[in-house]
Amino acid sequence: KDFRNNVKPNWCPGCGDFSVQAAIQRAAANAGLEPENLAIVSGIGCSGRISGYINCYGFHGIHGRALPIAQGLKLANRDLTVIASGGDGDGFAIGMGHTIHAIRRNVNITYIVMDNQIYGLTKGQTSPRSAFGFKTKSTPEGSVESPLSPLEIAMAAGATFVAQSFSSNLKQLTELIEQGIKHEGFAFINVFSPCVTFNKINTYDWFKENIVDLAEFEDYDPSNRVMAMSKIMETNGLLTGLIYQDTSRKSYEDLVPGFKKEPLVNQDIRLTEEDFEELMVEFR
Ligand code: SF4
């Protein structure tokens, strides 16, 4: 299926987000989805534009709120495949409360973060992922805060699927997104997606020199939670690949009876007059 539309992205030439767009389109096709069965919800930021660049349902939400919208969409119609996406500022600053709770809730959606360690849309300020000492217009003397580790946070929040990739590795990124889509639960995928205009430190070359591919470790077992956490810490969060997957836990909608039965959109949830009267009796 063709998930391309005729909207021309207005990202800067070379922006890492182009590859994320291509990877989502390829992964959706590889997973056998139809455009009418896929919805992409995004937050605010350069990355937020992605929901308008893919041929499927798209919802460009508000800052840090892609996840509540995406979860609501999935719970209303669990037959839809839902992808939430945004940047590191969107998901790990204003949206961090939602990120942690969505991870532990385990609704069956895929969350893709385009992590460029800076705020690009607002022209280059320090983000929660910027390194200590990182100089921007908002931290001219260098950031004095430690960057947060999204992988450690996802693991600590009880994630059932944690992966990380790099915009330059389209093959790996596509495979991980497809695996995330097929995972029965919340799939968290962090993507190093360089901002070529404002981040002159964490460039494509910088990532190529510093990231560690999990494929290098023959005995790595992504079902081993302790091994996953150790490897994240050993590599300072710079590893790529499928880091952790727990297939034993049921998704939120498989556990809650109202969602389990069938999609809410197919259920008659209107109150009859009798139901209403009954309800009122409880409040008298
Ligand atoms: Fe991409 Fe940075 Fe340009 Fe935004 S400002 S489109 S993140 S390169």
TrEMBL record:
Keywords: Iron, Iron-sulfur, Magnesium, Metal-binding, Oxidoreductase, Thiamine pyrophosphate. Residues 44-191 form the Thiamine pyrophosphate enzyme TPP-binding domain. Residues 195-260 form the Pyruvate ferredoxin oxidoreductase beta subunit C-terminal domain. SUPFAM superfamilies: Thiamin diphosphate-binding fold (THDP-binding). GO terms for molecular function: iron-sulfur cluster binding; metal ion binding; oxidoreductase activity, acting on the aldehyde or oxo group of donors, iron-sulfur protein as acceptor; thiamine pyrophosphate binding. Gene3D superfamilies: 3.40.50.970. Its cofactor is Mg(2+); thiamine diphosphate; [4Fe-4S] cluster. It holds the Pfam family TPP_enzyme_C. One of its GO terms (biological process) is cellular respiration. CDD domains: TPP_OGFOR. Coiled coil: none annotated. It comes from the Bacteria. This is 2-oxoglutarate ferredoxin oxidoreductase subunit beta.
